[in-house]
From TrEMBL:
PROSITE patterns: PROKAR_LIPOPROTEIN (PS51257)
UniProt key word Signal: yes
Source superkingdom: Bacteria
Signal peptide: 1-32
Protein name from the UniProt record: Peptide ABC transporter substrate-binding protein
Segments forming a coiled coil: none
Keyword Signal: yes
Pfam family, one: SBP_bac_5
Length: 590
């Protein structure tokens, strides 16, 4: 899934470089990290939330505030594809399965949510059956049924002309999924025939091929129930019917959302949620520096998990007391440059390889915030995703690029110079800085790229994720950050490399890569029961993709989160890109 890139200010680049050695200290937690803060409270220490739950508490009351510098793609659980929204949506939308709150890799543990148990596979992994917990109700007291889960999957995957923002795994893998027109065009009550609901508590998925990681797929918010009678398509976001511990009190598009306790949520049906705060406020379009101030004051959480700004980063890394309230962790994500394989001359491998060798990755890493923000990358898969194998198909001395080799490849491509455009998100200064560093590298070899900036909220729906748009606008290069939809090679690779995942809007295979070999390997992998064999296939896919040079790995993403002291139950989880698990955050006693 797409993760929100950390944000920095250009003016702070010098400060980041100056404290590069200090940033390395965040790899561990020392006695010096355990400091008393300005408000007189003792910190748990740097990286404490990557190792356990900080400020564990069952105290009820108060308001938890989340802040964001832009707007999310959507609060609709069936129409979102950002890690932070997958995380937040669990408060009001319960999927069949979810991830257990826990530090680091412990957070990758799958547990039943709406379902009573994990899925029961049959037919070699082509059929999966789930039973719902008894006594489940919506916020209005009406019962939640298996038909509502079926409908939620249908609307989120089979009405791409209406809801295009989420992934389309179900559409790709359900039997007869290519024939079903979706619930807005199909006015019958039957729906997709390959999803059966023999009774109100049973749902059966029939797939066209074996899918050995299907429990991960039903952990997406697309399986959170939606009552058909209350669905208003794209406008459902204005009146979402809660199945979780919180419900919407108000929603102002582009401004804020306020959630309050769902009085019809029953803890007897939910062993995961605690329903601690009285209110949850999500503030949108907040100045990034203001977010930092609020987080470090202990009064807000950076919703998207961007981490502290560059100016704040310099401040916290040189102040032991402030550094003690930070968590630096991998996020199962990579930052990369997608190359448009359908746009001339990048349809030729030699031109794409010229880009690979031209880029000074150290300058990109510096622009992103230094080693504390990410390690220099050379593979598609990051080190914390199964299937990763150390490799570097386009190695250069000190990762600073090879101008001579890039120019030779450009000649082999039949070019002496190339004019193209590169995209970055306008509300992400750090991504803009990284793109600028790439532009400077490419210019040295004769590739002249102009920067085009587009807002995050529409990056995939209107711009980089629209194949016709990028062709028309001569966009050959696109900044991208990607995290695993679930912690496996398939969960990371499918939506960015499979040709079948390419869509006309909301597309995340930005390279428009459609390799029969890679498509077949992905299909083989997901049907392979043996985990070791499956992971070796992911390694092969990584190698083939790099041999074809369809994207340039830049950094293996790391995040430096500010940890607000006034909140409880803070734990950084690998399941949601290193963000804090939002399920049970509460407010501490003042």
């Amino acid at each position: 899934m797409e993760g929100k890139a950390p944000i920095m200010r250009r003016s702070a680049l010098a400060a980041i470089a100056a404290i590069g050695s200090a940033s390395l200290l965040l790899a561990g937690c020392s006695k010096a990290d355990d400091n008393t803060n300005e408000n007189g409270t003792k910190s748990a220490g740097a990286n404490a939330a990557t190792k356990g739950v900080v400020n564990a508490s069952d105290k009820k009351g108060g308001t938890v505030t989340y802040e964001m510098s832009d707007v999310p793609d959507s609060f609709d659980p069936g129409n979102t594809y950002y890690a932070y929204m997958y995380n937040l949506s669990r408060l009001y939308a319960r999927p069949l399965m979810t991830f257990k709150p826990g530090p680091g890799d412990e957070g990758n543990t799958l547990v039943p949510d709406l379902a009573a148990t994990k899925g029961q596979p049959s037919d070699g992994g082509k059929t999966w059956t789930y039973k719902l917990r008894p006594g489940l109700e919506y916020e209005d007291g009406t019962p939640i049924t298996s038909k509502d889960v079926k409908y939620a999957v249908e609307r989120s995957n089979f009405a791409r002309d209406v809801l295009s923002l989420g992934p389309n795994y179900f559409q790709q893998f359900m039997a007869d999924g290519d024939k079903y027109k979706g619930p807005y065009k199909d006015k019958s009550d039957k729906g997709l025939s390959s999803i059966e609901t023999p009774d109100d508590t049973t749902i059966v998925f029939h797939l066209k091929q074996a899918f050995q990681e299907f429990d991960y797929l039903v952990a997406t918010p697309q399986t959170a129930p939606v009552p058909k009678a209350k669905d208003t398509g794209v406008d459902y976001v204005k009146h979402i019917v809660s199945s979780g511990s919180y419900k919407f009190q108000s929603y102002e598009d582009g401004k804020q959302a306020v959630l309050v306790r769902n009085e019809n949520w029953d803890p007897k049906t939910d062993p995961l949620r605690k329903q601690l705060p009285d209110k949850i406020v999500v503030k949108l379009k907040v100045n990034p520096e203001t977010i930092d101030q609020d987080v470090m004051a202990g009064n807000a959480i950076d919703l998207v998990g961007t981490g502290v700004q560059a100016s704040t980063q310099a401040e916290v890394l040189t102040d032991p007391a402030k550094k003690a309230n930070t968590d630096n962790t991998y996020g199962g994500r990579s930052v990369y440059l997608a190359i448009n394989t359908k746009l001339k001359p990048f349809d030729k491998p030699e031109c794409r390889k010229a880009v690979q060798y031209a880029i000074d990755k150290v300058s990109v890493q510096t622009a992103e915030g230094g080693p504390v923000r990410g390690e220099i990358a050379s593979t598609v898969l990051p080190p914390d995703i199964p299937g990763y194998a150390k490799a570097d198909a386009y190695a250069t001395k000190d990762n600073k690029g090879d101008i001579a080799k890039a120019k030779d490849l450009l000649k082999d491509c039949g070019q002496t110079s190339i004019s193209t455009n590169i995209t970055a998100r306008s509300d992400r200064p750090q991504e803009i800085d990284a793109a600028t560093a790439i532009i400077n590298s490419l210019k040295k070899v004769g590739i002249n790229a102009s920067l085009k900036q587009y807002p995050s909220g529409k990056y995939f729906t209107d711009y980089a994720g629209v194949p016709k748009f990028i062709q028309k606008q001569n966009i050959g290069l696109m900044m991208m950050q990607w995290g695993a939809d679930w912690p496996s090679g398939y969960g990371f690779l499918q939506q960015i490399l499979n040709g079948k995942a390419i869509s006309q809007s909301g597309n995340t295979n930005l390279s428009l890569y459609d390799s029969k070999e890679v498509n077949d390997l992905l299909g083989k992998a997901i049907g392979t029961q043996d985990t070791g064999e499956r992971n070796s296939l992911y390694t092969q896919i990584d190698k083939k993709t790099m041999d074809d040079a369809v994207l340039v790995p830049l950094t293996y993403f790391k995040v430096l989160l500010g940890r607000p002291q006034n909140y409880t139950n803070l734990v950084s989880t690998a399941a949601f890109s290193g963000q804090y698990d939002y399920l049970n955050i509460g407010v501490a006693s003042k």
